[in-house]
Amino acid sequence: MTPTANPPGLKPHRRFTLSGWQFALLLFILAFGIRLGLTATMRNLHRFPNLSCCGADAIEFNQLALNLATGKGYRMNGKVTAFRAPGFPAMLSLIYRVSYESFFLAYLTFCAMGALTCVATYYIGRFLLSEQAARLSGALLAVYFPHAYFSSVFLAEALAAFLLTLGMLLTIRFVKSGAAWWMIGAGAAFACASLTRPFAFLCVPLVAAVILWDGMRPGKKLVGPLLCFLLALAIVIAPWAYRNYGIYHHVVLFTTNGGSTFYGSNNDLTLHEPGHKGGWVSTTDLPHRDWIDATPDEGSHDRMEWYLGWTWVRGHLAWMPVLTFYKIGRFLLPEFWTKNKVFILAECVTYPPLAALILLGFYRNAKAAALRSPAWLIVHSVIVANLVTVVIFYGSARFRDCTASVLVLYAAMCVKNSLAEAPKNI
Fold first, then answer.
1. pLDDT above 50: residue 257
2. How far apart are CA 246 and CA 241, in angstroms?
3. Is residue 269 within 8 Å of 286, Cβ to Cβ?
4. Spatial distance between the Cα atoms of 52 and 152, rounded to a whole number of angstroms
5. How many other CB atoms are found less than 10 A from the CB of residue 251?
6. Is the Cβ–Cβ distance between 51 and 58 less than 8 Å?
7. pLDDT tens-digit map of 338-351
8. What are the residues facing 76 on neighbouring strands?
9. How far apart are CA 394 and CA 389, in angstroms?
10. Averaged pLDDT for residues 274-293
11. Separation of alpha carbons 99 and 359, rounded Å
12. 30, 72, 281, 301 — which has fewest CB within 10 A?
């Protein structure tokens, strides 16, 4: 029996659908509204957040931003410094130049940045997954509480997450089109991400290796795109490194707090103390603090802490697998160690379902060739870089949630079986 035409006067049923850009706009509005509503609920939008939720990091970021905005330079407590990565204070200083220390405008900017990260994640998903799964990935990030929470605190994660996601998007766009100029943007994005959260620099050799491998395929350019990527990276990072060399007379690419983080993460307390296992403690509570204080400047201070950290590691090599287990445990589990009970409750509601989707997605797609394609390898590189950082330093749900745009892509893979669609091989 063949289908017949519609009877006269009966209009065909039309499904309501959104185009890609319409969905992206709706996603931005939804994600922005969620973040602004959450921030307004948890904070006074015209005041700096309570110190209990963001600690010394936020105070120092804000002080640096104010000094930059008022022309005093990158100084803290009256002294030139490289202790904090400059990306977030530089961005915050631009807001303060428009309106002196306007916390309201700052919160709006954080919310917009978080919403843009959701949109960028959706566009990455369009290259890697089906349209439905891509939309799911953007929606998951929009409602994922820990990522939305970054918009309510004066910490670097909101900016770092956006820059990392942008870097991935531009690199994957290059893999699809082959146009080398995409790599200029990707290099600049990864450089800015590294100047915001230095762990992002570990993505660079991994991404470069993927570009090199992809360039060896027939019809692909090998040298040009890689040079564009590395040149853009160097141009963005070089001024900050040059400035630091003039101050400390040795190379400081990003910060002088790596030593305090490393020594604070690898010591007897983080190995044996129940409340600190796999975490970080201040070096003021560790042995040989007098050696650190005796150093003449910030750079020497940093080198002494690196020395003390490596000395401890070499003396406890047999214990390193145990300490690594603790670090990865903190990285994978919800943030149970904070005193903010509301935050723990909200994270426990949103993170375990996402983790379950990720595990199920990998279980269903572990053997899929698409996951070993250049585009997917770029996504994997962010997680690999994050895990390397955890093993070297310490585990934190804050580090994990900074890469939430990658996590939701993995979670969205879970639905592909229900949609009878496989991840795309790019």
1. yes
2. 9
3. yes
4. 13
5. 10
6. yes
7. 777 777 778 888 89
8. 79
9. 7
10. 94
11. 45
12. 72
Query: What is the CA 353 to chain-centroid distance, rounded?
Result: 20
Angle made by CA atoms 7, 11, 13, in degrees to the nearest 5: 115
Token output for 61:
């970021």
Paired tokens of 358: 């990720």
40-70 confidence digits (pLDDT tens) = 999 999 999 887 677 788 999 999 999 999 9
**Residue (of 385, 380, 388) closest to 409 by Cα position:** 380
Q: Which of 27, 22, 198, 18 is nearest to 112 (CA)?
A: 27
- Pseudo-torsion of CA 42, 45, 46, 52, nearest 10°? 30
Burial track 301-313 (b if 16+ CB lie within 10 A, e otherwise): bbbbbebbbeebb
> Which H or E run includes 75?
strand 75-76
**Which of 165, 202, 199, 188 lies closest to 236 in space, CA to CA?**
188
Q: Residue 270: is its pLDDT beyond 70?
A: yes
Helix (H, G, I), strand (E, B) or coil at 85: coil
pLDDT value, residue 424: 62
Strands 79-80 and 75-76, sheet pairing = antiparallel
**pLDDT grade for 416, boundaries at 50, 70 and 90:** low
Q: What is the pLDDT of residue 420?
A: 45
79 phi, psi to nearest 5 deg: -120, 145
339 versus 74: the higher-pLDDT residue is: 74
pLDDT of residue 1: 43
Distance, in Å, from the CA atom of 63 to the CA atom of 92, rounded to the nearest integer, reads 10
